[in-house]
Amino acid sequence: MSATDVRSRDGDAGARVAERVREGIVQGTFPPGTRIRQEDLAEQFGASRVPVREAIRQLEYEGLITVVPNSGAWVARLTLAECEEIYRMRERLEPLLLGYSAPLLTSQAIAELGALAARISQVGADTDAFLELDTAFHLRSYGAARTAHLGELVGRLWNITAPYRRAYVASWAEDSRRIAHEEHHLIVAALQDGDTEEAERVLAGHIRRTRRQLGRNPGIFAPEPLS
């Protein structure tokens, strides 16, 4: 086997490990602050240390893992200020991405979004089911966009904030749940009407409301650094 083949094999294995760890972080298997040990990942995924190191470097680049030299790696913890900054970015970037996508969504794609919105309304207090369907709803609504960088950036921001979105949804009262469902249906209705501007407006408010509610739950975030 040539050196090129070895690098290709390690790169493929690193991508697979990164994907599995990324899924674990997003799904709550690895909560913020969890220690990430190379030897544990190598054993868990049947990989050597080289692809595991590649995976950690990739996840550090994505903002999902914090690496401290000579100490180790941990699942990143956001401060409230950092999370608010990311949500403010999402509040502006995701309507823009939806604006790229909406004119290219087929009637079938919009109908599927409507079906997803209906399914979300039926999950009740099942946090895992809500998060899975909610993620599918929003990312599919952006799926027709033809962008060089914006879609990837939005995906990264979603992943970084996923653990905090989970904590937020788990704490919902019935009114919060109902409002989220209504906003999903309003986005679908605007897309059906071809009113991209209205869909963008509802989406921005949807994200803004999450940001404001998260700000009322400072205990789920990392402490702010001392000045």
TrEMBL record:
Domain of life: Bacteria
Domain HTH gntR-type positions: 11-78
Keywords: DNA-binding, Transcription, Transcription regulation
PROSITE patterns: HTH_GNTR
Cleaved signal peptide residues: none
Residue ranges the record marks as coiled coil: none
SMART domains in the cross-refs: FCD, HTH_GNTR
InterPro entries to which the protein is assigned, alphabetical: GntR_C, TF_FadR/GntR_C, Tscrpt_reg_HTH_GntR, WH-like_DNA-bd_sf, WH_DNA-bd_sf
Gene3D superfamilies in alphabetical order: GntR ligand-binding domain-like, Winged helix-like DNA-binding domain superfamily/Winged helix DNA-binding domain
A Pfam family recorded for this sequence: GntR
Matches recorded under PANTHER family: GLUCONATE OPERON TRANSCRIPTIONAL REPRESSOR, TRANSCRIPTIONAL REGULATOR, GNTR FAMILY
Name of the protein this chain belongs to: GntR family transcriptional regulator
The organism of origin for this protein: Microbacterium invictum
